[in-house]
Design a protein that fits this description.
The structure is a single chain. The chain has helices spanning about 1-10, 15-25, 35-55, 60-75, 95-105, 115, 125-160, 180-200, 220-235, 245-250, 255-280, 310-335, 345-370, 375-385, 385-400, 400-404, and strands at about 165-170, 170-180, 290, 375. By secondary structure, the chain is mainly alpha-helical. The chain has two domains: about 1-120, Fumarase C, Chain B, domain 1; about 140-200 and about 255-404, Fumarase C, Chain A, domain 2. The radius of gyration is 27 Å and the shape is elongated.
Length: about 400
């Protein structure tokens, strides 16, 4: 029944959305797959309608209908009405047109997609503002996941602090060390990167709504502009502000590139931990076998009883995808031309994907693997009493050359 109902649902978008589908859709990454962005963009459109109403540019009834339509989208309804490819030419034009047409259809009464829903706006300032709001919200979802991960690392470090093993350098035997060091050092690295992400979050509280295409504000009435930012703050519940240089905001998405790079670095920290877990749990008879990872599923369709470190491997694959996306995001900064960067939307959606993937993978790694890691203490103690640590201990008394 649900499929039949969806099949019968009226298409709410119009000609401009259809043209975008015909002319610029290639990746399969539909806007409908980013409900958080749709909700944020609907909040932007609602704020614009309220500001236009307050400035006297929209009839109150039209503004009310637009706001009601936006509320439906904010509530998560009609996401299926956003088929445009998020990676397309025109600096997000397809996204904005899709929004305008769906909101106009839901508002009814002959509401005009451009002259009323998009009044005093441009694709540039609308999509930029919606993107920044979405990024803030997604960071707010990611941080607690990473915080929980760091707490698990600290607990494991405490649990294993009294168990001694051997440290390895260049994959050769080295000094003795507590098993807990592996986990406490990763916790410190992760906490440091969480702090950097938190700091970068504040940069995205700056939006250029009201300053139209290139940041000059041309095409938006001053009476509307005086109202729209304050209204958007109320609609979103965020302490938003305008950037000091609005033209800079239109040309340089280096704030997105910085965040993307930090997300990639954080993923790299978890990739390193995952590789360590994978190696230290190798065996059980011919590997290092220091750690035991939870057996979450069969590791092989060929070897009976074989259990592979599939969860750490999932995290490593996630990190590789994030690294690839981050490389593209970095490229978008230099691809901006003259007075506008048309690739900001591409950078933003790739970064949103990376934030989402990192959050999901980190949660799985924490819940399905890290939380259940145990230590083979007898193996670790045997390694700790191997020859190199013992020989190295004599160096302080007899000197490097003599011991060599």
């Amino acid at each position: 029944m649900a499929n039949e109902k969806n099949a019968e649902r009226k298409v709410l978008y119009g000609q401009q959305t259809k043209l975008n589908l015909e002319n610029m859709s290639f990746s399969g990454e539909r806007l409908s797959r980013f409900p958080e962005y749709i909700s944020a963009a609907a909040k932007v459109k609602k704020a614009c309608a309220m500001a236009n109403d307050g400035a006297g540019f929209l009839p109150p009834e039209v503004a009310k209908n637009i706001c009601s339509a936006c509320d439906l989208l904010i509530g998560g309804e009609y996401n299926d009405q956003f088929p445009v490819d998020v990676f397309h030419g025109g600096g997000g034009i397809g996204i904005n047109m899709n929004l305008n047409e769906v909101i106009a259809s839901l508002a009814g009464g002959g509401t005009a997609p451009i002259d009323q829903v998009n009044l005093n706006q441009s694709t540039s300032d609308v999509c930029h503002s919606a993107l920044h709001i979405t990024i803030v919200n997604e960071i707010d979802r990611l941080i607690p996941i990473l915080d929980d991960f760091a707490k698990t690392l600290r607990r494991k470090a405490d649990d294993f602090t009294n168990i001694t093993t051997i440290a390895r350098t260049c994959w050769q035997d080295g000094l003795t060390a507590s098993v807990g060091v592996l986990f406490s050092s990763c916790a410190s690295a992760l906490e440091r990167n969480i702090g950097k992400i938190r700091a970068l979050r504040n940069e995205f509280l700056k939006v250029n709504l009201g300053w139209t295409v290139i940041g000059t504000g041309s095409g938006a009435d001053e009476r509307y502009r005086k109202l729209v930012l304050g209204v958007l703050c109320r609609v979103t519940g965020l302490p938003l502000s305008w950037p000091e240089d609005k033209c800079d905001a239109a040309q340089y998405p280096d704030d997105i590139a910085s965040l993307s790079s930090e997300i990639a670095t954080t993923a790299a920290v978890l990739m390193k931990l995952s590789a360590d877990l994978r190696l230290l749990s190798s065996g059980p008879e011919t590997g290092l076998h220091e750690l035991n990872l939870p057996a979450v599923q069969a590791g092989s369709s060929f070897f009976p009883g074989k259990v592979n470190p599939v969860v750490p491997e999932m995290m490593i694959q996630c990190g590789m995808l994030i690294e690839g996306n981050n490389a593209v995001v970095g490229r978008t900064v230099s691809m901006g031309e003259i007075h506008i960067n048309l690739w900001e939307i591409m950078a933003g959606f790739l970064t949103l994907k990376n934030i989402s993937m990192l959050g999901k993978a980190a949660r799985l790694l924490n819940d399905r693997c890290l939380s259940g890691v145990t230590v083979n203490a007898d193996v670790c103690e045997r390694y700790a009493h191997s020859s190199i640590p013992t020989i190295t201990a004599f160096k302080e008394k007899f000197g490097y050359q003599r011991i060599s």
